[in-house]
């Protein structure tokens, strides 16, 4: 799976979209296959699915896991048992209440939860029992919850859902889907209609962007007309960081740490694995883009004498490789 995805948004339209009643048109490559959380594979389908379904938890703008459908949760002392209670009166688009049976059905169908035992405590409460401790387990519960028998009874492109948006219209040309429109009855959103327009290749998407047919599009490579702004975000909501232990006498000197920043090419080290954060509040409307986030200087050269440092990382292949790359500088 590609770690990075790139979104391009037309600058003028981005700000206009903040005005009440404005719709948004996004260009998509290929054809939609399914929006069911248990079956979505394409990143474009996942983008739509995330608008249609709610999970027990969700990520906030800072990447932290916060409750969505979950009202309360408890973790056993040994870290193996999670007891989660649903909020009451949470409804599907068909008017039925979301209940524990839906959680159990979803757990049975979603691959990431296949090794987890799921038991019904009452109509709104489920107990998840893990085979081994896994501290980020709540992040797995951000997967969209499906109503019972979704795979068996629902149209994969027009299913019963629970999110703030729902499928309103599917437009076809012959056997091909040209546009899917989502609407939201929730007045808290400035954008209440989103149309996904499907194109057969990237050239068609770029042409549509230049003609103003779409306001944004999702691609894995950096391709954008001049009137679009490039926003990058990681698919995985996980941060990896290199921390300097300033209690170490060698690193207590800020000048030494600044020199290390200049000689470590993190951008090249992380290529294909993630994107660099932009400070503690990264890649959000609160990020100060005037700050300098990449201090690597390929022309910087200075003898650090007999300075030697120890890098400690978990015994995980990617971490070990990264540590060796940094040590080789």
TrEMBL record:
<feature type="transmembrane region" description="Helical">
    <location>
        <begin position="7"/>
        <end position="24"/>
    </location>
</feature>
<keyword id="KW-1133">Transmembrane helix</keyword>
<feature type="domain" description="Solute-binding protein family 5">
    <location>
        <begin position="66"/>
        <end position="265"/>
    </location>
</feature>
<dbReference type="GO" id="GO:0015833">
    <property type="term" value="P:peptide transport"/>
</dbReference>
<keyword id="KW-0812">Transmembrane</keyword>
<comment type="similarity">
    <text>Belongs to the bacterial solute-binding protein 5 family.</text>
</comment>
<dbReference type="GO" id="GO:1904680">
    <property type="term" value="F:peptide transmembrane transporter activity"/>
</dbReference>
<dbReference type="Pfam" id="PF00496">
    <property type="entry name" value="SBP_bac_5"/>
</dbReference>
<keyword id="KW-0813">Transport</keyword>
<protein>
    <recommendedName>
        <fullName>Solute-binding protein family 5 domain-containing protein</fullName>
    </recommendedName>
</protein>
<dbReference type="InterPro" id="IPR000914">
    <property type="entry name" value="SBP_5_dom"/>
</dbReference>
<dbReference type="InterPro" id="IPR039424">
    <property type="entry name" value="SBP_5"/>
</dbReference>
<keyword id="KW-0472">Membrane</keyword>
<keyword id="KW-0732">Signal</keyword>
């Amino acid at each position: 799976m590609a770690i990075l995805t790139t979104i391009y948004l037309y600058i003028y339209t981005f700000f206009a979209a903040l005005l009440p009643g404005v719709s948004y048109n996004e260009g998509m490559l290929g054809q939609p296959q399914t929006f069911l959380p248990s079956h979505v594979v394409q990143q474009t389908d996942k983008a739509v699915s995330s608008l249609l379904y709610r999970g027990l938890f969700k990520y906030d703008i800072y990447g932290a896991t916060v409750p969505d459908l979950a009202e309360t949760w408890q973790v056993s002392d040994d870290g193996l048992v999670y007891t989660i209670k649903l909020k009451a009166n949470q409804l599907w688009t068909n008017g039925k209440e979301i209940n524990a049976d839906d959680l159990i059905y979803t757990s049975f169908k979603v691959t990431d939860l296949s090794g987890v035992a799921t038991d019904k405590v009452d109509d709104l409460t489920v107990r998840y029992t893990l085979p081994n401790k896994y501290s980020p387990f709540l992040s797995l519960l951000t997967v969209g919850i499906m109503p019972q028998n979704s795979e068996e009874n629902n149209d994969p492109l027009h299913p019963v859902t629970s999110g703030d948006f729902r499928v309103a219209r599917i437009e076809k040309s012959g056997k091909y889907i040209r546009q899917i429109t989502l609407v939201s009855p929730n007045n808290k959103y400035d954008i209440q209609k989103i149309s996904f327009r499907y194109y057969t290749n990237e050239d068609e998407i770029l042409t549509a962007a230049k003609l103003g047919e779409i306001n944004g599009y999702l691609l894995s490579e950096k391709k954008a007309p001049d009137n679009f702004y490039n926003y990058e975000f990681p698919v995985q909501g996980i941060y990896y960081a290199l921390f300097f232990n300033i209690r170490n006498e060698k690193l207590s000197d800020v000048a030494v740490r600044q020199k290390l920043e200049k000689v470590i090419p993190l951008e090249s080290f992380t290529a294909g694995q993630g994107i660099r954060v932009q400070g503690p509040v990264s890649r959000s409307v609160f990020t100060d883009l005037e700050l300098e986030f990449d201090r690597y200087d390929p022309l910087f050269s200075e003898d650090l004498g007999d300075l030697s440092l120890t890098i400690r990382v978990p015994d995980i292949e990617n971490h070990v490789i990264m540590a060796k790359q940094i040590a080789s500088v």
